[in-house]
Amino acid sequence: MKYLLDTASLKDIAHYCEIFPIAGVTSNPSIVKREGQIDFFSHMGAIRSIIGREKPLHIQVASLDAEGMLKDADAILEKVDADVYVKVPVTMEGIKAIRLMKARNIRTTATAVYSRQQGFLAMEAGTDYIAPYYNRMEHMGLDAEDVIASMVEMIDRYSYPSQILAASFKNAGQVDRAFLAGAHTATMDPAILESALTQPHIINAVDTFDADWKSVFGDKTISE
Ligand code: E4P
């Protein structure tokens, strides 16, 4: 199980990487838009500086055609670094781009995945990661867990090198279910991670421990 942050906020990435065992960072054009008029490449470089070179950084192409996606990939790899996983939506042009990128040993993450068929085609095209959109599938009435489990089954059955990078979460329960269905990694907004540890019953339990300790020892801590 690996947890990634699905954000381009430098402040959040720095803050949450100090707290949680974060395994990498993802974004897409909609997430990047929230940062306003940034210098795209230097901003992505700043994310890399925070997380370090050993953790996967996934950056999405903006072009819609395969040729443009390849040019986007070249620019990302040249101006950020050669270790970036290039996120490519699994469309007709996207699947072509993934095949061409793999032929050039470019690391890829197949994204905007809503179905088994997209996932199966992406693994056969040689992608490193597949990003099924959990919450969006649920909204469509699809069984997101079953879709993820099917992809994991095919990866295992045929020994594809692809891994599942589950995405599009709106709560911690969805993340848990994606992992239980076999997702190797999951990316989420930091607020979802924080919500897992800030539930009122957790805070109440800790407040009670604190009050009971102080009722006996006052403000002295164990180490004093
Ligand atoms: C990440 O790679 C995806 O682009 C992202 O999780 C989509 O999330 P959303 O459904 O909240 O937009």
UniProtKB/TrEMBL annotation:
PANTHER family: TRANSALDOLASE, TRANSALDOLASE C. SUPFAM superfamilies: Aldolase. InterPro entries: Aldolase_TIM, TAL/FSA, Transaldolase_AS, TSA/FSA_arc/bac. Gene3D superfamilies: Aldolase class I. GO terms for molecular function: aldehyde-lyase activity; transferase activity. This is Fructose-6-phosphate aldolase. It is found in: Cytoplasm. It comes from Extibacter muris. NCBIfam families: PRK12656.1 (NF009299). Pfam families: TAL_FSA. It comes from the Bacteria. One of its GO terms (biological process) is carbohydrate metabolic process. The keyword Membrane does not apply. GO terms for cellular component: cytoplasm. The keyword Cytoplasm applies. Keywords: Cytoplasm, Schiff base, Transferase.
